[in-house]
Design goal:
Elements lengths: L4 H25 L15 E9 L13 E10 L2 H4 E5 L11 E5 L3 H35 L2
Antiparallel strand pairs: 1-2, 3-4
């Protein structure tokens, strides 16, 4: 394994968790948005992660064992679960029957996702710090 591989894996993990946090914050911020430039209410977004192989592994046996993460994309929730109808006849976006299409975003679910993302981010920072300390100790051997 190359000297910098743990740093790359940790950096990719930090970037992925940051992207997920940005999407969660966007979902929470738009929990009551009934108008978007595309038309209709805001649709909940989710981050899709995938595993990516780490190039330059020193051993072919580690090639499949050591992988990094990448953001594969940001997708909208399924159409049937992204919008809910709420009765509010006084709302400017209400239809003839008095129903308004609002985002189907559960703030509690988003907050739990936010806490899990925060913990994953902290774990990546801890792993990065441990890798850094190991590298420093390795360099100290040569003194």
């Amino acid at each position: 394994m190359e000297f910098y591989t743990p740093f790359k894996i940790c950096g990719d993990g930090l970037a992925a968790q940051r992207a997920k946090m940005d999407v969660i914050v966007s979902n929470i911020a738009n929990v009551n948005t009934t108008r978007t430039p595309e038309g209709g209410p805001y649709k909940r977004k989710v981050v899709v992660f995938s595993a990516d192989s780490v190039d330059n592994s020193f051993d072919s046996k580690l090639k499949d064992a050591v992988q990094t993460v990448k953001v594969d994309g940001i997708e909208e929730a399924a159409a049937d679960e992204s919008v809910k109808m709420m009765h509010n006849p006084g709302h400017p976006d209400a239809d003839a029957k008095g129903f308004v299409a609002v985002p189907n975003i559960n703030v509690v679910t988003e907050m739990v996702d936010m806490m899990l993302t925060n913990r994953a981010y902290e774990a990546c920072v801890t792993a990065f710090d441990a890798s850094k300390n190991m590298a420093i100790k390795t360099l100290d051997i040569g003194k």
